[in-house]
Every structure is written in C-alpha cells, then in structure tokens.
Amino acid sequence: MNFDWNKYKGNLGWLQRNTIMLTLTGSHAYGLATETSDYDWRGIAIPPKEYFTGFLQHFEQADRGFENTDCSIFDIRKFCALAADANPNIIEILWTNIEDTVFCKPAGVALKSIRDSFLSRKVKHTFYGYAIAQLKKIKAHRGWLLDPPSHKPTRAEFDLPETTVVSPDIMGVIESLENDDPHLGRFSPEITYAYQRERAYHNALTRWHQYENWKKTRNPARAELEAKSGYDTKNALHLVRLMRMGEEILSTGEVIVKRPDREELLEIRAGAWSYDRIVEYAEKMDAKLTELEKTSHLPHAPNRAWLDSACQHIVEEFHGWK
C-alpha cells in the first residue's frame, strides 16, 4: 500500500517538507501481516526555525488515522529522547528494511548512521517490559473468557448504600496509608469497613467496564481465535517477538525488524502454543535476558550528551545554521 501524504498533513503545512524519514512499521514491517492487518507508518521531522527560537509554536508529534491506516510523525528531539530510553516502538524505526522505507532524506541518513549509539542494556527492561504488558493483557482476557462477569455490579451487592459514605478525599488518604498498618488505626472500624467495601465495588465495576469494552471493540476473527485457544494469541505473538528482539539486541547489537522466525510467530498467532507454554516461555526469557544484560557488550546506558550534540548537529545542518 502506498502512503497517501495528503491524508496526514492536517494543518501542519510544513510537515511534509520537514519530515526527514518515513517508514512502514508494525506487522507489515515485521513480515507478520495478515489480510486484516492495519498499515502503520512512523516518521521523524525537524520543525521550522520558529519552533526552536520562539515560544508560541510547539510540536512533539503528529498523529493521523484514516480507515485502516495510522501515522505518527515525531519531532526529532522527542524521537531521540525516546530512542535513548530504548523505547521498542521507536528504536525499530531506524532499523526497518529499505523496502519498507517511503523516503529517507540526508538528515534521516545522518540519524540512521548513529543508530547504534542509541542502544544500551536498557533494552532488557524496555523490551521485556513491553512483553510483560502483553502477558498482562493475555491473563486479563483469559480471565474474561473463562469467568466473564455475568452482570454490572451494584452497590447493594457490596453492602453499600446508593450514595457513597466515604468521600473521594478520604478514599485517597486511606489508599495512601493502606500499606502502613499503624496508620489505619486512625480511622474508625466503620470508615475502614466502608472503604474496603467501596474499593471492592469500584474494582468490580472497573472490571465490568473493561470487559464490556473488550467485547465491543475486539475483532470478530480475533474473538473466534481467542475462544478456540483460550487466550489472546495475537498478544502472545508480540510477547515472543519482543522478548526475542531484546535477546538479539543484547547478544548482537542488532535490531532485526523483519522477522526471520516469521513462520513460527504466525503459528503462535494461530494458536500453536498453549497458554501454559506462553507463561513458561515468559518466565524462562526473564531469566535469560537478566543474564544477557550482565554479559552484553552494550553500554549500561547511552551517551546522552553525545546523542544530544549529534541531534543538534543534524538540526543545524538541515536548517543551514552553520
């Protein structure tokens, strides 16, 4: 699918000419797309001079969506900050395959030339952290599949009157002191009991709303696969991909976007791995990544001062300020 720039410019007339790199990302860049996969594009831009010298203009990123496509274009300064923090969705932009790159101007080439300097052992925590976020979704969705809420909870079910007897302020105070047992004694047994009932009710209500939103927004084909497999296999695919990418970076210093394990990952998405195997894999990879973090040749953290200077140089060259 070709990128239609006119659908994404919005009211930022300068965005197209100041975007230094634009690339396809997500499932299509990974080589994991199916017929129903959306198209995701990400880019990097250097704003005009007034965004650096004045205070009225401000730009961090532009997000646009149209039909089955989404695009995010980042200010180069925000991009570099996120890349230095080893953000998985950001780092991969600098390593996407050439056939997935819409264009890369000289400033973009300059940024790609220093891409290795963004890598550090922080990737253990970010890639693993993103993977565990997928596992949390898997567990939550599995809970809804196996034991879905039967109805919207009522206050009466939690021995509560129709109106709250504990104000939000008091709820906040008690929550802040909840783990400090001596402080809980400052509240009467009646207040403590009401607080516990209110909290249980709100937790149940939150779970109900999340469940209803999940049912309403999930893809029908994905729902059918979830019902068959007993868990969200798409989340499992990304869990495995993220952990393997983290392992590759720590071991080799390479960010492999187009997945060489494509067939296996698609099999996981189709339900080839059991839920228990996914959980076991996550636990084993945690231990493996922890060991790799200790032995990796990557620095503990990137040289942020050097990266900041390099970012300045690219911006100055782009605007001809030298």
Q: Count of DSSP E strands? A: 5
Helix content estimate: 40-55%
Inertia-based shape: globular
Strand/helix succession: HEHEHEEHHEHHHHHHHHHH
Which runs of at least 5 residues are low in confidence (pLDDT < 50)? none
Main beta-sheet annotation: 5 strands, mixed
The quaternary structure here is single chain
Strand content: 5-15%
Strand order, largest beta sheet: 3-4-2-1-5
End-to-end Cα distance: 39 Å
Alpha-beta classification: alpha+beta
Q: What's the Cα radius of gyration? A: 24 Å
* Count of helical stretches: 15
Give the SSE layout.
Layout: H1 15-18, E1 19-25, H2 26-30, E2 39-45, H3 50-53, E3 61-66, E4 69-75, H4 76-84, H5 88-91, E5 101-104, H6 106-113, H7 123-146, H8 168-177, H9 181-184, H10 189-217, H11 220-229, H12 233-252, H13 262-269, H14 275-295, H15 304-319
Parallel strand pairs: 2-4
Antiparallel strand pairs: 1-2, 1-5, 3-4
Helix pairs in contact: 4-15, 6-15, 7-12, 7-14, 12-13, 12-14
Please describe what this structure looks like.
This protein is 55% helix and 10% strand. With 322 residues, it is α+β, with helices and mostly antiparallel strands. Strands 3-4-2-1-5 form a five-stranded mixed beta sheet. The two termini are 39 Å apart.
